[in-house]
Amino acid sequence: MCKIISKYTKTGNLKYISHLDVLRFIQRAVKRANIPAKYSEGFNPHMKTSFGFPLSLGNESIGEYFDLELNEKIDIDAFMKKMNEVLPKEMQITAAGYTNTDESIMSRCHFVQYLINIEFDSLDYNILNEYLNEMLETGIVYERVKKNKKNKNVTKELNTKDLIKYLNIRKNDDDNNATIEAVFLTTETGSIKTDEFMKLLGNKGFEITYYTIMKVDSLDKNMKTIL
Amino acid sequence: MIDIKKLDRQLLKVEKPARYVGSELNCVVKNKEDVDIRFAFAFPDVYEVGMSHTGMQILYGLLNSIDSVWCERVFAPWTDMEQIMRDNVIPLYGIESKDELTNFDIVGFTLQYEMSYTNILNMLDLGHIPLKSKDRGNDMPLIIAGGPCAYNPEPLHDIIDMFVIGEAEEILPEILKIYEQEKSKGLDKKLFLERIANFDGVYVPSFYDVIYNENGTIKERKAINSSAKEVIKKIIIKNLDKSYYPEKSILPYIDVVHDRVVLELFRGCTRGCRFCQAGMVYRPVREKNVDTLLKQADRLIDSTGHDEISLTSLSSGDYSCLSELTLKLLDKYEEQKVSISLPSLRLDSMTFDIIERIQEVRKSGLTFAPEAGTQRMRDVINKNLTEEQILGPVSTAFDLGWSTVKLYFMIGLPGETMDDVLGIKELAYKVKDKFFQRPKEDIKGNLKINVSASCFVPKPFTPFQWVRQNSIDEFYDKAKSLQREIKDKKISFSYHEPKLSYLEAVFARGDRRLSEVLIAAWKKGCRFDGWYDMFDFDKWMEVFKELNVDPDFFASRERDIDEVLPWDFIDCGVTKEFLYSEYNKAMNASTTPDCREQCFNCGINKKLIGGSCPHVQNNK
Question: Environment class of residue B231 by beta-carbon count within 10 Å: exposed (0-12), middle (13-18) or buried (19+)?
Fold first, then answer.
């Protein structure tokens, strides 16, 4: 089996593109780049690709991944060069390599590292720092409402302590502006979403005027980058 | 530029934010300091509809191929986005530069269907541009429009500064050249319009006045500017092989209505169906040759990575090299898993071996458009299709394994009786019989026949431009009779909303008095009228009443042959005499053959070509 894992970016206006749209877009890029992709058999052949956890709409990323199966082995540098020529500057492949693992990207991913840049109306650094420590140590309990299979709302209680591994504030030049480094648990069985985190800040009374979120990388169970 | 942070803060609140940000592959970003003309191509519907429109891709590519011009796109924001733009004072902007619409030199709307007119007003208003021509000074963009509905431009006469009648790609570069000259001198819109008013295909509504009779019909049109011509002749591209066709098309990130490479095989149609405006106004037939098309396909596939090529035209089965082209495309792209689709085939002309090859893997549904249920009715509309020519291909399709069939009909055609309406049911049942009247072992799959009926809307420049449309009640009566009569579980029946078709008919054959109606309806909140869930018929009826305009006058009135019609000043190449003779033949249910067999002097040959049409010669 010939399988390439690629790490790619999704920045700028591409943050508004949903996960499904990214799938189709990358498959088309593979076609434009003339990569000898493998297709499934059967009546409706489709390209053999697989992706990591969907990135939340509105978040940018420099640490997205996808697997692509090939019919024949090609040079990795040539692969990256060909792909990056047909991809826009907001989406570029930054690393790639052949992989032998059968484990999917999703099951390899355990944590996600983010940089969250926030502009506050007025920021009391100490209060924010205290609150972030509370999230990590005592834990903040919050509710997630989800629809079940019968389309009924079910509420689940979650605790930040179980889901957030690391938080650190970096004060920026502007007094009301801070960058939070965060590592969130992101597995098939449990995770916290960036908008939930932002909502907790809002509920606590922090007045946020603008924020941007950059996903830095997906990490495996040893907190190492996937590629 | 609009406040990007402000926009960014709001965009995640709307459905499909990617509609509003651009940055797609192959979109064009220029340095605004390097260009003389900023052009906004405005599509008065949502992004997904606009991005599926080939005409936009052609004009976008063409205009951006001119160094001094930067053409951007703008679409109608959906209602959620409109609310956000109004609440946060974000003006409508060009999707590439995010510059406000007021920063553009020219905003060009495409008029694809009448029910998009309120969106034009909404887009101007969201762009902080006054709705009426006369209220826009030289500091405001020039508002122009083109497309099929421009063949009756009068309902928009107060709003649009200039219309292009015919194929705009032929004339827009020339118009922009003159604009550039005038702009360098300090633009005076009126002077500019006077300079271009003598071009074929250019109509400046403010240069004319219309005087009405007491009964509401038109008494006369008067030119009130010395540059204004009496008759506006449509412009056409003479040679499609040499005309511009984009090598790249913009690849949207989100799913759009038509997500594939579109190859235009030819323009025009020789069939002469009497209900069809496109068949009359896009004459003469002009084909592209196979080499041109193969080259265009190649470039478009390379630049997009699409996995489907759609071969389009008004009647693709009539393309003289269809099987050669299809087979060549199949051979070339099979490896790359690119499929071919042929959306507009008349099944009488289709060759099943082509269909079979292009659908080798997927047996999706087949669509047939008999348009009318009885032979008499099909003769009235000059469909030139016998029952055998419908049922024959249907049987072949069943034998080849298809089991889902769509049948398209119209109700409310001129001279239609209840027997003709019920003929739709009869025909659908005959299709069903064809499926089951086969040896048991051959019957595979689950038969599904979808019958759909649309309400006939008489259009300008067709032989039916004089007829009265059925009333809403008549339409409901006919549709409901069919619904009652079609009881078979294998056959499902659906029909288009008569109220929508009624309003479409009002605007299709409307005159200048409808500009005020449009503005008032927009003020009441009418938007996206073509979207059934947004369409508010009662609001429209209130407006007609308040302004004392009778919509029946436009939709439900039989016109006299001598009446001056609002669009009479436009010369689409086909003569009024020809249309009238076709109308008379229709009333006698007598047919006119395909004009490849014989020329019937529709006028195109003499007026636009100067000789006889090439397709007639080729066949003799």
Answer: exposed
Residue B547, in any domain of the structure: no
C-beta of residue A157 within 8 angstroms of C-beta of residue A141: yes
- By residue count, chain A amounts to 227
Q: Is residue B314 domain-resident?
A: no
- Domain with B193, as residue range(s), is 4-226
Instruction: Tell if the CB–CB gap between A18 and B255 is shorter than 8 Å.
Output: no
Number of folded domains in chain B? 1
Provide the β-strand partners of residue B341: B310
Tell me if residue B365 falls in helix, strand or coil: coil
Whether A90 has its CB under 8 Å from any CB of chain B: the answer is yes
Residue B331: what residue type? D
Task: Encode pLDDT of B466-500 as tens digits.
Answer: 999 999 999 999 999 999 999 999 999 999 999 99
Return the structure tokens found at A46.
Answer: 């489709």
State the amino acid at position B269 in one-letter form: C
Contacts of A16 in chain B (CB under 8 A): 11-12, 17-18, 21
CB–CB contacts below 8 A, A to B: 57
Cα separation, B510 vs B155, in Å, equals: 6
Identify the pLDDT of residue B475: 97
| B254–A32 C-beta distance less than 8 A | no
Of B18, B22, B251, the CB nearest to A28: B251
A58·B12 Cβ contact <8 A: yes
- Which A residues 26-55 touch B at CB under 8 Å? 27-32, 39, 43-45
The CATH number given to whatever domain includes residue B75 is 3.40.50.2300
For residue B351, name the pLDDT band (cuts at 50, 70, 90). low
Residue with structure tokens 């208003």?
A: B125
Nearest by CB to B361, which of A17, A21, A43? A43
CB B258, CB B304: distance < 8 Å = no
What does residue B221 show for φ and ψ, rounded to 5 degrees?
Answer: -105, 140
Between A65-69, B499-503, B613-617, the lowest mean confidence (pLDDT) is in B613-617
Which two structure tokens, joined as six digits, stand for B342?
A: 């042929």
Domains of chain A, earliest start first = 2-108 (3.30.70.580), 111-219 (3.30.70)
d(CA B151, CA B154): 9
Place of tokens 């008013």: B197
Interface test with B, best of A14, A16, A71, A85 (most B CBs within 10 A): A16
Three-state DSSP state, B245: coil
Segment B138-151 mean pLDDT: 97
Is B142 a member of any domain? yes
pLDDT of residue B434: 93
Residue B15 within any structural domain of the chain: yes
